[in-house]
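Field log, afternoon session.

UNIT: design team B
ACTIVITY: writing a sequence onto a fixed backbone
BACKBONE:
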């Protein structure tokens, strides 16, 4: 389970919490794709921070129910969040092992591994052929 941080204003946070839908949608930039059950920490960064403070106010947190990559940007994700479920409940109900993006990545890695194994097989077959020729010539002599 991971934590992801999103910057919002207090007005946006209140609007998100009071959304009438079960799963309000929010977008953000993240280094890796969030999974169902991950925690979204919502913070506000102050422009003019008081002396001795970090300039960050924690507004609250919610649980990510679903994350879809936005096609126009590589690290931008559209999240469906929930406030009334625990991460374990979300993982149990909505957690799926593969999203479209992770499925594409898994398929690409499998194809690369298959190509690598095929290349190694061809090299070994060539070496075995040369060795068999060498051994057959030595037996004749």
């Amino acid at each position: 389970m991971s934590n992801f941080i999103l910057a919002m204003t207090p007005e946006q946070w209140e609007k998100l919490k009071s959304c009438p839908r079960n799963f309000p949608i929010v977008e953000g930039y993240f280094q890796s794709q969030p999974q169902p059950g991950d925690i979204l920490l919502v913070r506000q960064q102050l422009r003019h921070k008081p002396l001795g403070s970090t300039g960050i106010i924690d507004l609250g947190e919610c649980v990510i129910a679903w994350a879809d990559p936005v096609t126009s940007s590589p690290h931008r994700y559209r999240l469906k969040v929930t406030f009334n479920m625990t991460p374990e409940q979300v993982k149990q109900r909505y957690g799926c092992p593969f999203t479209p993006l992770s499925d594409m990545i898994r398929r690409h890695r499998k194809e690369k591994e298959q190509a690598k194994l095929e290349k190694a097989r061809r090299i070994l077959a060539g070496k075995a052929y040369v060795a068999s020729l060498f051994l057959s010539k030595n037996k004749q002599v």
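LOG NOTE: The longest strand covers residues 56-69.
NEXT ACTIVITY: expression trials, pending approval
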